[in-house]
Specification:
By secondary structure, this protein is mostly beta strands. The chain has 1 helix and 18 strands.
Length: 239
C-alpha cells in the first residue's frame, strides 16, 4: 500500500504544474449574455421605417402604429441605432445606446412636435411579472395632441393624473370588477372618436368599448394622436 500511495503522489506531483497552467488560461470566446430590444413606429405623420444596429438591419419594416417583437442582441454592448425611411432609404434618426445583459428595451421612433425632426427614444422595460397585479406603464408620445391627457380609474387603483408629451408613469393595478381606466384630452376637440377603456372584461357595444387587462401581465399603454390631433390609445403586452 505504501508503494501505491508513493507512486500516486509522484504522478500527481508531475501533473500539478500542467493543471495549474490550464486553470489560468483565459477564454476569449466566452458568451457575455443577451439583451432584448423591440421597435415602435409612433410618428403618425411619417411612413414605414427600417431600423439598423451598427449599420445592419434589425427586425422587419415597422409601419406606423405597430411594433416588432423582442429581438435578442448581445448584452453589455453599445450600439448606434438608426432608422431609415422605407421609400428613400436615407437615415432620418439616430441614437447611441448601451444594452445591459438580461434587460429589455423599447426603441420609439417619434417626434416632439409636427415640425421637429424625428428622434429615437429608448426606454428600459420592466417585464418582471407580479401575479397579483397588472403592471401598466403609461407613455405619452402624442406629439400631434394640443392638450395634456387625463387618465383615471373608476376602480380607484390610482388617483387621477395628467400626462404631458414625453411623460412615462407606471402603476400596479389590482384588477377588480370595478376597474375601468379611461382617457380624455384636457381640452376636448369636436372630432374626438370614442376611446377604449382598460377593464377587467373586454366589451364591444355601440356605447362603450374596452380592452381587457389581466393580473400577472405587464403592459405598455401607449398614448398617441392622430393627424387631426385626436387622442388614441394602444395596449401592448410585454409577456
Amino acid at each position: 500500500m505504501k508503494n501505491i500511495s508513493f507512486r500516486f503522489s509522484r504522478i500527481l506531483f508531475m501533473f500539478l504544474p500542467a493543471l495549474m497552467l490550464f486553470s489560468c488560461i483565459k477564454n476569449d470566446n466566452f458568451i457575455k449574455g443577451d439583451a432584448k430590444i423591440r421597435y415602435f413606429q409612433t410618428a403618425v405623420t411619417d411612413t414605414t421605417q427600417n431600423f439598423y444596429l451598427k449599420g445592419i438591419q434589425s427586425g422587419a419594416s415597422t409601419t406606423y402604429g405597430s411594433n416588432s417583437n423582442y429581438i435578442v442582441v448581445a448584452g453589455d454592448s453599445t450600439y448606434t441605432i438608426t432608422s431609415r425611411n422605407i421609400n428613400t432609404g436615407t437615415d432620418v434618426a439616430s441614437t447611441s445606446q448601451k444594452f445591459d445583459i438580461g434587460l429589455n428595451y423599447s426603441i420609439y421612433y417619434t417626434r416632439k412636435t409636427t415640425t421637429d425632426p424625428p428622434v429615437l427614444t429608448v426606454y428600459r422595460d420592466d417585464v418582471k411579472q407580479d401575479l397579483t397585479v397588472a403592471k401598466l406603464t403609461f407613455l405619452n408620445l402624442g406629439y400631434t395632441l394640443t392638450s395634456d391627457v387625463i387618465i383615471k380609474d373608476d376602480g380607484g387603483a390610482f388617483p387621477q393624473f395628467t400626462m404631458k408629451y414625453g411623460d412615462r408613469i407606471s402603476h400596479s393595478v389590482i384588477v377588480t370588477k370595478g376597474t375601468k381606466i379611461s382617457f380624455a384630452l384636457q381640452t376636448p376637440i369636436s372630432t374626438q372618436p370614442p376611446l377604449n377603456t382598460l377593464d377587467s372584461l373586454a366589451t364591444s357595444t355601440t356605447t362603450q368599448k374596452s380592452l381587457a387587462i389581466t393580473k400577472g401581465l405587464v403592459y405598455t399603454v401607449l398614448i398617441d394622436g392622430s393627424k387631426k390631433g385626436e387622442l388614441q390609445m394602444r395596449l401592448v403586452s410585454a409577456n
